[in-house]
Amino acid sequence: MKHSALIRLAASALSLQLGTFLVQAQTFNLSDNNATADINVGTSAGMYNWSVQGQNQLFQQWFWYRVGASGAEAPINTISPALAVANNGTRGLSTTYSQGQFSVRVEYLLTGGLLGGTKSTISETITINNVSLAPLDFHFFQYSDFNLGGSAAGDSVVIGKNLFTGLYNAANQVHPLVSFEESVISPGANHAEVGFFPNTLNKLNDLNTDNLNDVTGFTGPGDVNWAFQWDFSIAPGASAIINKSKYVELTVIPEPTAITFLLSAVAFVTLRRSRRVGS
Ligand SMILES: [Ca+2]
Ligand SMILES: [Ca+2]
Ligand SMILES: [Ca+2]
Q: Which residue segment(s) compose the domain that 58 sits in?
């Protein structure tokens, strides 16, 4: 057998064996009416696009975890290659990362408004299963770097608490042209952090043990980012479930008709003034 044939044979055997690994590099594109979202399920680039009317509002959102009180945090794509399944037509995606002790499943559902509309939501449900025979001390982190209005500049953010539970349950990021809110439906987060890129991201990626610092803003304007941290103790055979919803709205749409009206009004006033000066 010639070398090239051998290589082809080996390559096809490899792709059969590593079928799930091929999924790792895969990007999924969600769409619904006026909105699209892109998710790289195999790297910490994660969800790197959420566009409304073609304008991207998101640079990076991804999830990190730590087992136990000490040790480095790691992105969930290092647990295993993603088992990813699209659902709900072009709107939904379910991704699962699992190893011998636990699994993490993240489900995304994109909802767009009418074509030409200004609003969109993404809901996310995260399920952490303890499949071991011992309690699981599991710390889960969501890191979000939104760049509203299509640029990193000019954003401000504040994180809020549920006054009854004392847990962090909302992040509001604002920009002159776009407003954004994330609501944690259940349960609230134990810690939160706002700051300027890339301080929080560096914490999650370095080799130190880190917990979010509970600095909640108001922070900005600038290239802000923010994060939530949940501290779970999950009984053997039990699950932790996080339910969240994100909402983005373009608050100012430059409408050609309005601009035309404004320009003609200015022209009219200028004309009257020049006539008065002339008379
Ligand atoms: Ca911006
Ligand atoms: Ca760290
Ligand atoms: Ca940002």
A: 19-278
